Each structure stands twice: as C-alpha cells, then as structure tokens.
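Let's practice the habit of predicting before peeking. Look at the sequence and jot down your guess about where helices and strands might fall. Then scroll down.
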Amino acid sequence: MADADDMVEGYRDGSSDHRDEYPAESNRSASYAHGWRNGRDDRKRNPRATAQILREAAVNAKAKDAAA
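Done guessing? Here is the structure:
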C-alpha cells in the first residue's frame, strides 16, 4: 500500500509544483514520480498519454517499487 500512498503524495506535489519536468536528481519511488507527473499534467491541463497508457504506467511503477 505504500506505493499507492507515494503515488497520491506525488500527485499532490506535482499539482502544486511550479516545475514542468520531474526533478532528475530525485530519489523518490517510481510510484511517487508517476503521481507527480499526473499532478503536473492535471495542473497544466495537458495529459501526456491516454488513460489506458497511464494506467499501465501506474502498474509498472508499482511493480518497479515492489522489486526494489
């Protein structure tokens, strides 16, 4: 469940951050980074992919975190 919490935290941070790109030097989880990008996309009202692709990316981020 930590990956879902990270994703939500990332979304909140991305939706309130002023940056357009996720910080390369970040040491946060893949789930956090995915959430951050979704928050940024909603803030900018510009989705980077279709909903299906974003769902698949969320599953991949969770799997990457589980493997770490």
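How did you do? Residues 41 and 48 are 7 Å apart (CA to CA).
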